[in-house]
Amino acid sequence: MQAHMMQQPLLVSSLLRHAERHHGDQQVVSRGVDGGLHRYSFRDLARRARQLAAALGALGLERGDRVGTLAWNGHRHLELYYAVSGAGAVLHTLNPRLHADQLAWIAEHADDRALFFDPTFLPLVEALAPRLPGVRHFVLMGDRAQLPADCAIGGLLCYEDLIAAHDDTYAWPLLDENAASSLCYTSGTTGDPKGVLFSHRSTLLHTFASALPDTLNVSAADCVLPVVPMFHVNAWGLPYAACMVGAKLVLPGPQLDGASLYALFESEGVTLSAGVPTVWQGLLAHVRGQGLRFTSMRRTIVGGAACPPRMLAEFEDELDVRVLHAWGMTELSPIGTVSAPRRNGEPAAHRRAQQAKQGRCPFGVDMRVVDAAGAELPWDGRSAGELQVRGHWVVQSYFGGASPLADGWFPTGDVAHIDAEACMQITDRAKDVIKSGGEWIGSIEIENIAMAHPAVAMAACIAARHPKWDERPLLIVVRKPGAELTRAELLQFFAGRIAKWWTPDDVIFTESIPLGATGKMLKHLLRAQYQDHLLCPAN
Known about the structure:
- This protein is of the alpha/beta class.
- The chain has helices spanning about 10-20, 40-60, 75-85, 100-110, 120-130, 160-165, 200-210, 235, 240-245, 260-270, 275-290, 310-320, 350-355, 445-450, 485-495, 525-530; strands at about 25-30, 35-40, 65-70, 90-95, 110-115, 135-140, 155-160, 180-185, 195-200, 225, 250, 270-275, 300, 320-330, 335-340, 365-370, 385-390, 410-420, 425-430, 435, 440, 455-465, 470-480, 505-510.
- The chain has four domains: about 10-250, Rossmann fold (3-Layer(aba) Sandwich), CATH 3.40.50.12780; about 255-320, 3-Layer(aba) Sandwich (Rossmann fold); about 335-430, Luciferase, Domain 3 (Luciferase, domain 3, Roll), CATH 2.30.38; about 430-535, GMP Synthetase, Chain A, domain 3 (2-Layer Sandwich), CATH 3.30.300.30.
- The protein is globular and about 70 Å long.
């Protein structure tokens, strides 16, 4: 017996339609490359997105065509989010921090038919254009005054001219909710990037889950500023969630230094933000150095890498900002788990210990930890193995590639354990685990201890080859500006905080640690440089 309920497809355009009808006067604030602020409403966003969708059709772009973007977090990029997917094409966000060779490879693999880009990326696109024969239209995301007088790109189009040529009577088509809506490629630090093709359905279900109280807890009362870039997993879904609940949305542009972010938080009344630990380090350093406080921000989402306990404590104990420690991947759209309190009145020490973990799954995602034979391990907080996930917004197969699934589960490549409260903690990436004399050592715990030292700005722990133990932990450290710290002092800092045999064999001080395009430490580069350090006779 079938139910007698309406069937309406879950479409990206429905989020914008809802925002226009029910939260039309809510603000979207966007900071440009020049530092100036652009301010308009969800109603304006919806109108311009319809005009842009009409322009896409006039350019000959069809359903399923990939439309690339090279852009910061700004209002025009937001318009593309809704216009491209809403029209039935596929939004392909390209990461401008990647090497030009990688960008050319990704755009060709995706078979992009158009490329929209911020004016700041004009030199990059001029260099890329001859390598992108499949791209029919290059569009500069600005007005006519920003078009260069002399440009190596033939037929360069102006974004504002495209919009001005169409009215806002465009009607969003009724699409199959399983049709592709957007495309994002993995970082590809250990091989060619892989494309993850999100559907309208997966995007909408991810958006519903992201706003839940025990996930990111987004509401119309919030002012949301995604520091995490819109070119990386759709800014963790926040541009969609803001429209769904009617939250004010603030887009910071390219200026992500501590002073610029703090000024925007304060001037716009930001209550919720999201970013990777390396960005928050800069913000906290500015706040600490200037003796500042936050007057409105009360929650921050930390993801992309493990949140160091010292950072968590500084946000919560000193600045009264609650930390939502999250874990996810491009293949998960990206939210997999969030560490939120499970019950009121739990002991503070237990709450903080659980908060340092990656957290529990929202409804829509399931997880398990398996051993080398694929058998599921118990949820006892000790049994560590490979973390696997499945769910409504988890990848089934890569774009143009094979399925990575094992027995219907996606193997994340993370090593983790799950406790009796269903709280997951990642101990390492599988490729980063250190195997010393047949025993496993997790690099993340060593890094967290090092980061707790007041003189340490950044720390990475890698496996270095050892003549007796096969591998031993090697710590690579960036000191804080003006700080003095010796190898012996830092190694002594580990005493009593970790099993003695886990203590690093050596410390290397360096001026910087290489970071990837999403702010993650590139440990494969460190291993290539230092993996023989402990074999050197001088050591």
